[in-house]
Amino acid sequence: MTSKGQGDIGNLIRRAVAAFNSGNHDHAVELCELGLKHRPGDPALCHLLAAVLFAKADLPEARERIEASLAARPDNVPALILACRIARAEGRFEAALRQLERAARLSSHAEILVERARTLDQAGDSSAAGVSWTLVLQQDPKSEEAAARLGRLAWERGASLEAEALLERAVASGGHSTAWFDLGLVRQDLRKFGSAAQAYRRVLEMSPDAPEAAVNLGVVLQETGDLDGAMAAYSLAYGLSPSTFGVIAMALTSAPSGRLWLDEEALRRSLAGGAPPPGAKPFAVDTGR
Prior knowledge:
This protein is mostly helical and 289 residues long.
């Protein structure tokens, strides 16, 4: 191809990248495919098209394109990392790890270690994932993701105090809503109901459509004796997802302090914010007796 043609391809790639970055994925695909008509198998175009298709969740096509890119440039570390991500999204964890092993032989980039930890985590290998996330945190002590995942893994194996310390570290600078939710779970297990409520409220500030956080907020508020606050949280959860009704009804009658409704319709009306039906009144009870 002439130098002018190479310049045209370079300009097309820049336009495709701009379209991709702006969220116009369909246009980015069109530009990449146009370039590949003039330069079939071009590794840069195949790599870019694979990234766009991956973003569109078109995994089989993304896999085909990244394999074409690697066939032309087998030692390209970013392409190997993308190949790992595609394989992981398809559930092909061993293939994903093989791509990372190839990348690790070529580079010591921190992203490779993170991708390995994510892959082991998603594969369900908690022990190996814990080792990998520990290495990530040692390499980057400010990694919120590593602290959050290690905190979750510690909670799952029953090490609640260790989990709390790690999750507090994960949310120290803001954190993700999932880390705050896990922190709420840990504090709830430790019977730190007030601080658990703070964590669940933070989840709802960050993700207002999180019914699980609203239910758990109701549970911990009920544990503190704040029945009005608990009912407000349960009402929020029910409004977000009516499927939470069964959990809410069980929580209301199983905690040391709760309420008992004469019938299901009365409780549903209360949670929905409407007036109870005639003759159906909520009773404050001590369900621990």
